[in-house]
Amino acid sequence: MSQKNFILATGRRKSAVAQVKLVDGSGQFMINGKLGLNYMQENAFCFLLIQAPFNLLKLDKKYDIIVKVEGGGLLGQAQAIQLGIARALASFENSYRSSLKSKGFLTRDSRCKERRKYGLKKARKAPQFSKR
């Protein structure tokens, strides 16, 4: 992969959508124009969640990661970024796919918020029932 070539992949979780771009580099991590740890508000759990595919494959400082993410909360965005990174790595090298798949990094979590139904207060919460 030369400097001009890059890999694009998309990850989704709940209402968060992340577009991940992997470029050869020194391991710099940018999310929406900010450093990754700063964007994740110094939250170590979210940052480790994002780094998990790289830690599994021992590719810590091989690629620069540029992410554009929108929607959802911090954890949903972190999980969307993780899926995008895993998909990008799997499309780059087929040998990575089996180890990423066995750890569950390539599995899309499709759970999202249930819609509100009419006559109810929320998706399932009904008004209080009065017998008399």
| Alpha-beta content class | alpha+beta
Estimated helix fraction:
25-40%
Question: Going across the major beta sheet, what is the strand order?
Answer: 1-2-5-3-4
SS strand fraction? 15-25%
Task: Tell me what you see in this structure.
- The longest helix is centred in the middle third of the chain and has 19 residues, at 74-92.
- The protein is an alpha+beta fold.
- The chain has helices spanning 36-39, 44-57, 74-92, 94-102; strands spanning 7-13, 16-24, 29-31, 34-35, 63-70.
- It has a 5-stranded mixed β-sheet.
- It has one domain: Ribosomal Protein S5, domain 2 (2-Layer Sandwich), CATH 3.30.230.
Features of this protein?
single chain; 35% helix; 4 helices; five-stranded mixed beta sheet
Question: TL;DR?
Answer:
The chain has 132 residues and is an alpha+beta fold. Helix content is 35%, strand content 22%. Its main location: plastid.
Which secondary structure elements does this structure contain, and how are they paired or packed?
Elements: E1 7-13, E2 16-24, E3 29-31, E4 34-35, H1 36-39, H2 44-57, E5 63-70, H3 74-92, H4 94-102
Parallel strand pairs: 3-5
Antiparallel strand pairs: 1-2, 2-5, 3-4
Helix pairs in contact: 2-3, 3-4
